[in-house]
Amino acid sequence: MSPRDRRRDWSRLDESDVRVRPGRGTRPRTKRRPEHADAVTAMVVGKDRGRWTCALGGDPKQIVVAMRARELGRTPVVIGDNVDLVGDTSGKPDTLARIVRVADRTSVLRRTADDTDPFERVVVANASQLLIVVALADPPPRTGFIDRALVAAYAGGLEPVLCLTKSDLASPDEIIAAYADLALPVLVTRQDEEPEAIADQLHDQLTALIGHSGVGKSTLVNKLVPDADRETGVVSAVGKGRHTSVTAVALALPDGGWVIDTPGIRSFGLAHIEPDDIVAAFPEFVEAAEECPSGCGHLGPPEDPDCMLDTVVADGSASHGRLESLRRLLSSRAGIDESPREQVGE
């Protein structure tokens, strides 16, 4: 058949005569996912370059390295998460399991890079306590950072505990008095003593530690977990510590419980937290806050002249000190009355 005749033959064909082979991207995909009935539970205790270290059943002696299963997509997996594993969970060298499910979180410690950053970062999941580590000197304490850490704890469902280090260099009385109305547990330690009270507070709990570099956080962790071997550093002449903990990691306490050591924080943004999240941590003010005008930041006059929180103090249902503490936290969240250095936690 000549080329001319062939063209004439093709002209008589229609779409019913043409068989189109579907491309790979158009093939129908099932929405069904494997049930993984044989999965085992574990807690995430470390992460390094796309691999997660997990403790089977929360047992620090049964450690497994795992990767995120493809079906999870970009589901975030952070330290403290409870996950389901399949595959090789023997924990032998060069073996790799797969994380196929992440359980619902009971608490989250979140932060943003600053108060204008819309992207929130989950730092730790499922911690019952947040130990806020602050040095009384070298570097000096910054109440702006303490307030911001308290806001993050209250909003995330963690019980905050204030830990004041280096009491051999300065008195803790002023800081303790500043937070007396919050009924906030305050633990005081010094460099030449063992942190027995802190060990008791952390016993059988999952506790996250946060603090500036140089406040003695890694030194404290090394005392609580003798084989942790966390690197320690010195404070520079300008009052800033060198970052010694570079990755978050969960460490098993000798007598039960876990402590999650986080990298030294230079910024603690609260862009993701709403005022009502903070008020919820003060039950005596919740009902009155619901009567406030829409958009009320609960700061009181002149910012919020119609705020109803003052009525709770007026009728004797709450103390003036509690309201002042609440509004200090709200101001910290809003970035009001803070110097730039305090605001970013540097």
Automatic annotation (TrEMBL):
Details of cofactor binding: Binds 1 zinc ion per subunit.
UniProt biased composition (Basic residues): 21-34
Domain of life: Bacteria
CDD domains: YjeQ_EngC (cd01854)
Record-listed GTP binding positions: T165, K166, S167, D168, G211, H212, S213, G214, V215, G216, K217, S218, T219
Pfam families: RsgA_GTPase
Binding site for Zn(2+): C292, C296, H298, C307
Entry's Gene Ontology BP terms: ribosomal small subunit biogenesis
Domain CP-type G: 116-268
Keywords: Cytoplasm, GTP-binding, Hydrolase, Metal-binding, Nucleotide-binding, Ribosome biogenesis, RNA-binding, rRNA-binding, Zinc
Compartments in which it is found: Cytoplasm
Bias kind Basic and acidic residues: ranges: 1-20
InterPro entries: G_CP_dom, P-loop_NTPase, Ribosome_biogen_GTPase_RsgA, RsgA_GTPase_dom
EC number of this enzyme: 3.6.1.-
Family: Belongs to the TRAFAC class YlqF/YawG GTPase family. RsgA subfamily.
UniProt function note: One of several proteins that assist in the late maturation steps of the functional core of the 30S ribosomal subunit. Helps release RbfA from mature subunits. May play a role in the assembly of ribosomal proteins into the subunit. Circularly permuted GTPase that catalyzes slow GTP hydrolysis, GTPase activity is stimulated by the 30S ribosomal subunit.
Protein name as catalogued: Small ribosomal subunit biogenesis GTPase RsgA
